[in-house]
Structures are given as C-alpha cells and as structure tokens.
Write a structure and sequence with these properties.
The protein has two helices and five strands; from the N terminus they run βαββαββ. It has about 130 residues and is α+β, with helices and mostly antiparallel strands. The protein has a single domain, classed as Heat Shock Protein 90, CATH 3.30.565.10.
Length: about 130
C-alpha cells in the first residue's frame, strides 16, 4: 500500500517536549502510520500541537472509519489488530514510549468520524 494520497497538516505553536528524540520519533511515526493505514493510504491527517501548563498536547486525527467503542482501549494491547496484515505492535509501542516519558495517551472518536489519538508529554523548560 502506498501513502502518496495522505496529506499531513500541523497547526499550533511550536512546543518542545522533554524526552528521547529517537523514541518520540518512533512514537509519532507509529501513530501517523496507523492513521494512514486506517484510511487505506489516502486522506487527511491533522496534527494539532498545544501547550497547557507544564505539558505538551499533540492530537493526531484521521478521516478513517473510527474505532468501535468496545475496541478503543484494546488498540494499545500488544498483538491486538483489526488489520489483515497487522502485527498489533504500533500503538502498543506508542503507549510504552508515552508511559516511559511519564505522559498519557488516549484514543477518541469524534462525532464527525475518524479517530484522534491524543498524547500528553512533559514540556521542556530550557
């Protein structure tokens, strides 16, 4: 599957999270790849960055089919997948990385459709 038709846009102010740059890259790569796969390689991914107090908030929202309520907490379980060829590790790894950074991650499905993964990480105050 190609991802030529995925369009990623970012809105919000620049924010610097405290953490390991390579692990944070893996975190957001896994979340964006999951979003692109949910849309079968085509559609918008909206990334919104905000800061609130001592935390950064990053929301990655796609225009896919969304996630059924009964499956929303399972998406972070190792080896859980709804994909034919999925390993079920991408979002499990994402949660481990967020936990290691003393952050939080959750999934929401807005009424308009799609899914949004919300990540909270400590801010860097340099």
């Amino acid at each position: 599957m190609g991802y030529e038709d995925v369009r990623v846009t970012r809105v919000g102010a620049d924010a610097t999270a405290r953490g390991d740059p390579q692990l944070l890259t893996v975190l957001f790569r896994n979340i964006c790849l999951n979003a692109a796969q949910a849309m079968h390689g085509g559609g918008p991914i909206d990334v919104t960055v905000t800061t609130e107090g001592e935390r950064c908030r990053v929301v990655v929202a796609d225009a896919g089919p969304g996630i059924q309520p009964a499956l929303r907490e399972k998406v972070f379980d190792p080896f859980f997948t709804t994909k034919v060829n999925g390993a079920g590790l991408g979002l499990a790894i994402a949660r481990r990385i967020v936990d290691a950074h003393r952050g939080a991650i959750c999934v929401r499905c807005p009424a308009r459709g799609g899914a949004a993964l919300e990540v909270w990480l400590p801010r860097w105050r340099g």
